[in-house]
Write a structure and sequence with these properties.
Layout (H helix, E strand, L loop, with lengths): L1 H25 L1 H15 L6 H23 L1 H12 L4 E3 L5 E5 L5 E5 L8 H16 L4 E6 L18 H14 L3 E4 H6 L17 H19 L5 H4 L4 E10 L9 H4 L2 E8 L5 E5 L4 E5 L1 H4 L27 E6 L7 E6 L3 H9 L4 E5 L8 H8 L3 E7 L13
Parallel strand pairs: 4-5, 4-13, 11-12, 11-13
Antiparallel strand pairs: 1-2, 2-3, 6-7, 8-9, 8-10, 10-12
Helix pairs in contact: 1-4, 2-3, 5-6, 8-12
């Protein structure tokens, strides 16, 4: 048995080497051009023979690395071999992270030095902000978004652990005890028999379908507890049409290991059938788009081509992660003015939520410069929402509000 295993390993290694040889051979022209340019740029005027040899080796190494990065050939071959070997725990380019394959085949990032953090300081920051804004008459609603890994580390390889859910449990419990209104969206998702269908295979985000389900759940709270009026059409899935872009998306986790290991994802554009008129502004990026839903808060240019290692189709929704953005809904002048403090999960929810608002502002504290507390006190929205997923509980900057 051992001899057979070693034989197969040798065959795989040989195939990898042959693939590398073929790849280098077919790309030889561009590689040689890079080598020559590198050599000429660094060659001393009177170089000794050994110096020329050393410089040629360095130039060749740099050219091969550049070509590998451009074509992602090494990533693809490495991922293909890992798949053939049946490996579920893969070393990542980031020395602190590994990529694992869950029981259901989906990928997940795991910290190599994973341990459960005490997030009581983050809960206290949220409680203090709530108390400060309560004096200003501005309520807060904190939403806890689910991740692909359910509570109890269900589906993880036995050699790995993930503590995002445990940390979110602590944060939610302490925040509620301190008077913060909490909507734990994990409760909505955990009871679903098709839980896995709401998350990408190769990316760490929920799908647009998951964001829409969360939006429906949120609107029930907005009406029931805050007295906001939400039109029935806005939360009715029959009032939306779905366009599926097939095999177009290699997500953040898939980019680390390639399509031969992970495959690729579809992504859906969920757009209203009813009339919409929106203006979407991102001042720092000099973005201003006015039109219907598809031409304002949806960036269809993100799905016009297929570049697995270069494009991010998830950013079709709201364009991506920005420090600050604003949506004006010209069809809902009487709706609430909401400020959404967000992580990247909110990209997919922002377009839906904008339909329930007169004005929707979003702030990402990873990039926002200034005091969130001061901005809210000046802006005076009708409601401040937080949408954080479980992984965000480990990001200190997301709880720095002053």
């Amino acid at each position: 048995m051992k001899k057979r295993r070693h034989t197969w390993s040798a065959v795989l290694c040989l195939l990898v080497l042959l693939g590398m040889f073929a790849w280098i051979t077919f790309d030889a022209g561009s590689i040689w051009g890079t080598i020559r340019a590198e050599y000429l740029a660094n060659k001393p005027e009177h170089a000794a023979f050994l110096d020329k040899v050393t410089l040629t080796i360095r130039a060749t190494e740099g050219a091969l690395n550049q070509s590998a990065d451009r074509n992602h050939g090494f990533i693809q071959m490495f991922g293909g071999v890992q798949n053939l070997l049946g490996k579920r725990v893969i070393e990542d380019a980031n020395p602190d992270t590994i990529v694992v394959r869950l029981d259901n085949g989906k990928l997940q990032f795991i910290s190599k030095n994973a341990r459960q953090e005490d997030v009581s300081d983050k809960a206290q920051a949220l409680i203090a902000l709530n108390q400060t804004l309560d004096d200003a008459g501005v309520p807060i609603l904190f939403m806890a978004a689910p991740s692909k890994v359910r509570e109890g580390n269900e589906g993880l390889p036995v050699v790995t652990k993930e503590y995002g859910n445990a940390q979110m449990d602590q944060l939610v419990s302490l925040a509620e005890q301190g008077g913060v209104d909490v909507l734990d969206l994990r409760e909505t998702f955990n009871g679903l028999s098709n839980f896995d269908d709401y998350f990408f295979n190769t990316d760490h985000h929920w799908k647009p379908e998951g964001a829409f389900l969360a939006f429906q759940t949120l609107c029930t709270r907005l009406e029931g507890r805050y007295g906001f009026s939400v039109d029935d059409d806005i939360v009715d899935p029959d009032q939306y049409e779905t366009t599926v872009y097939e095999d177009i998306f290699l997500g953040s986790q898939g980019k680390r290991i390639g399509t031969l290991y992970a495959g690729v994802d579809d992504i859906s554009l969920i757009a209203p059938k009813f009339k919409t008129s929106l203006t979407y502004r991102v001042p720092l990026e000099q973005i201003e788009r006015t039109g219907d839903y598809r031409d304002s808060v949806i960036f269809r240019e993100r799905v016009e081509s297929v570049k697995y290692f270069g494009d991010n189709p998830y950013a079709m929704y709201a364009g991506g992660d920005y420090d600050y953005a604003q949506v004006i809904n010209h069809q809902n002048r009487g709706g609430p003015h909401i400020l959404l403090v967000r992580d990247s999960y909110a990209c997919a929810m922002t377009p839906f939520l904008s339909l329930a608002c007169s004005t929707l502002e979003t702030i990402d504290l990873r990039y926002f410069q200034g005091s969130l507390t001061e901005y809210i006190q000046k802006d005076k929205p009708d409601l401040v929402l937080f949408l954080y997923t479980t992984a965000t509980t480990s990001t200190p900057s997301m709880f720095q509000f002053s």
